[in-house]
What we know:
transmembrane; membrane; two-stranded antiparallel ribbon; TM_pro_TauE-like; mainly alpha; cell membrane; 1% strand
Amino acid sequence: MDPIWWLAYLALGSFVGLMAGLLGIGGGGIMVPILTSLFVIQGVPHEHIAHLALGTAMAAIVPSASASLWSHHRHGAVRWPIVRHITPAILAGTFLATFVAALMPTRGLAIFFAGFMVLMSLQMLANLKPKPTRTLPGAVGLSGAGLGIGGISALVAIGGGSLTVPFLTWCNVRLPHAIGTSAAVGLPIALAGALGYVINGWGTAGLPDAAWGYVYLPALLLMAPFSILTAPLGARLAHRLPVGILRRVFAVMLMALALQMLYTVFTA
């Protein structure tokens, strides 16, 4: 592989980690559109572009999700009873959704991804937060929420924080605990999603030689460690920079990247 691609993946991982530390936002919204463009330039067949981008992004989230879980656990911010009850459904929803993704065409996945990211960007721009109006549901309710969170997370390659945190705060879980608990369920989402994309892409013709199913190993091995290295820098900058303004700029950037992904897959 040309060294320019190594530099591209290194830079992407570094930027994703910086944004995650600065704004507390997962990297799928950045990684998937940019990986899509990189894979198009590298000549990956059109029908595999979105699947490979989603699978690689899910796998790249695993190390950062592990680090985030441990950090929040050390601060006592994880509500482990909630994690125990919701994780089985999240695992099932995430894993099964990768089979749905495998059946969808690249353009269908791109439309779903872009639509979700535009909605998330609008929510960030408006700074909408659900008001706590109820208590946590029982086992059936948590399982239903877990299936939905896991399923959507697998289709857009996110750790679930943009869905889990609003759900938990709506259920009167204090925000620090909602964030910590969301970080804890982010790891099973990433693991189940990565495994599902590996299984569904295994043996598929036309994928790059260095791919495990729909996970492209060179991108994964460069992005993941550098995202972890730059995340602490982002966290330190969060105390010095106007995060509110940066969050709005980031929302616009997410929207632009999502629309750029649509343009890429419809014109490639």
